[in-house]
Design goal:
This protein has 555 residues and is α+β, with helices and mostly antiparallel strands. It is built from 17 helices and 16 strands.
Length: 555
């Protein structure tokens, strides 16, 4: 469930009921999430209560927000179209488990999806319990069933409570349909929220759980080492001696597995959906909705969070450390997928200059009644390009659906801003929305952009793309490598100065503010706050390594 993926979105859970239950244990859900409410209405406890009153127990409902006016009992012919493990083991047999224990026992009894691994995550996991006993802690289990790193069923639930009141959400793979089905248990009943294609369709895109599962796949925001907030080989989550998490069988036996293992599983789950999706999209002589695929090349449909490998508390003034490479450019796509032969050095930042910036901008982790000065547990957390976008780009190129040159020309437009680029997003207007033959998709888009560039200024993204597109097949890899090398040389030169470090600290905070505006930002302690105003101008990096206010130059 990108960047990285088994971490199921908690956005569409029944928050009000869970908070009331967990408050008794001091484990209140602290996520910034939307309640499960009827469409077109603001979320709130009243809406949640009204929705719950109409739900009969031991029933499977369908509620696709943006499509359905409200929850509807799934008809037998609709249920028969669900062939994932949850439907096959329970719903299609009239069984409705109410707790995680019921789900696991039922699957075991049926011999369904053997192989179980459990993982633990929590944004308060590196705050010692005795340092902040008043802090509301929200630990979650991610539980995966399936063998050989194959995630057939992925569960997200409270680690502090195993009762019927705890939130319980499941992504279940339907191999015959090639999709994940998304379910949530609400009180004594279950709701089907949609499948992977629901995330892509305009009417339901960004609705309910698909505000986080933006492209239909499972989600793990902190996908790469050091897996900030996850129990892993890099860090152990700190639990109070009387924490209810300790008594959970999924904490004790089998023992927790580290997030380094989950990363592999999530990448495989994302890839599984991408392969099925592209197989379906290219099964005929035309591609339906090519724009649904190309937006993962031209835009930032979602993000992952990455950090340096250094714990903030261990950072010394006389040591240097490197921010994530994804801060500077889309290295995964350009260097790995497209094999651009750039020879670069990873920029390293002076610890003293960084600590000065952390103090100057008053970095702190803050929640209700709690403040800890400083950065996140691992230093320099920033959003980076999402694995689920990278995975689609990889398969589009490998399958020949788009050419490597076309992908590179798009990604090199405003390349020093790998996320939230208005310039690259502007190229989406040239992508066909109707059926298009795969063998002309690249040329159709490229020709349209080049034609438009002839009527626009040299500062437009169309003109930039057109200049790249005119390069020969032999020249473009070398040309792009030189551009990346020149840019990274400039970054390395600038990061060696206090002024440069200050620039890049402000740049990282600008990117974090854009992440915080996304619905995937669910938890108040995910990232630090600063004294930089929320409405401060957003910043971009320039090809010479300098940082300045965003000026899209779209014309």
């Amino acid at each position: 469930m990108a960047e990285r993926a088994i971490y199921l979105s908690l956005k569409h859970q029944s928050i009000a009921g869970n908070r009331a239950m967990n408050a008794a244990h001091g484990y209140v859900q602290r996520r910034k999430a939307t309640a499960w409410a009827p469409p077109e209405k603001p979320p709130g406890p009243a809406d949640l209560a009204a929705a719950r009153e109409i739900l009969a127990p031991a029933t499977l409902y369908r509620f696709v927000q943006g499509v359905d006016a409200g929850p509807e009992v799934m008809k037998p012919e609709q249920r028969s179209g669900l062939n994932d493990p949850m439907a096959a083991t329970f719903f299609n047999k009239g069984l409705f488990p109410l707790t995680l224990g019921d789900v696991m026992a039922g699957l075991d009894d049926a011999g369904a999806v053997p192989g179980v691994k459990s993982y633990l995550v929590g944004e308060t996991g590196q705050i010692p319990p005795d340092e902040a006993p008043q802090l509301e802690r929200d630990f979650r289990f991610a539980i995966v069933r399936g063998g050989d790193s194959k995630a057939d069923l992925m569960i997200s639930t409270s680690a502090a409570d195993a009762s019927e009141a705890a939130f319980l959400q499941i992504a279940s793979w339907d191999d015959s349909a090639g999709v994940f089905n998304y379910y949530m248990r609400l009180d004594a009943t279950w709701v089907w929220s949609g499948n992977s294609y629901t995330a892509l369709a305009p009417e339901s895109r960004g609705q309910a759980c698909f505000d986080s599962h933006a492209n239909g796949s499972v989600v793990m925001k902190e996908l790469t080492a050091p897996w900030m907030h996850w129990q892993s080989q890099n860090s152990t989550i700190l639990l109070a001696s009387d924490s209810p998490v300790r008594s959970s069988p999924y904490y004790q036996s089998p023992p927790l597995t580290g997030a380094e293992d989950l990363e592999t599983t999530v990448r495989a789950a994302v890839d599984r959906w991408t392969v099925a999706r592209l197989r379906s999209a290219t099964a005929s002589e035309t591609i339906e909705h090519p724009d649904w695929l190309l937006r993962q090349l031209c835009t930032s449909t979602t993000v992952n969070l990455a950090t340096s490998p250094v714990e903030f508390k261990t950072l010394s003034a006389d040591a240097a450390f490197s921010p994530p490479l994804g801060l500077w450019f889309n290295s995964e796509a350009l260097l790995n997928t497209l094999a651009i032969p750039a020879d670069i050095s990873l920029p390293a930042m002076n610890g003293g200059d960084y600590l000065h910036g952390v103090s100057k901008y008053e970095f702190a982790l803050e929640a209700e009644g709690f403040t800890r000065k400083g950065d996140s547990f691992f230093a320099f957390a920033v959003p980076v390009p999402a694995f689920e976008d990278l995975n689609v780009i990889d398969h589009l190129v490998a399958s020949g659906t788009i050419s490597a040159k076309f992908a590179a020309c798009v990604l090199m437009v405003d390349f020093c801003n790998p996320l939230f680029s208005a310039r690259r997003t502007a190229l989406m207007r040239y992508c066909p929305t109707g059926s298009t033959a795969p063998d002309v998709l690249t040329s159709t888009i490229a020709d349209a952009i080049v034609t438009a560039a002839g009527h626009l200024t040299k500062t437009s993204p169309e003109f930039e793309f057109a200049a790249y597109w005119m390069l020969t097949d032999e020249a473009w890899p070398k040309e792009f490598a030189q551009k990346i090398e020149h840019y990274m040389t400039s970054v390395n030169r600038r990061i060696a100065t206090p002024a440069g470090v200050d620039d890049y600290i402000r740049l990282s905070e600008s990117r974090r503010r854009e992440f915080k505006a996304m619905k995937i930002n669910e938890f108040t302690l995910t990232l630090p706050v600063t004294n930089i105003p929320a409405n401060a101008p957003l910043l971009d990096t320039r090809p010479d390594g300098t940082v300045g206010p965003r000026t899209p130059d779209l014309k």
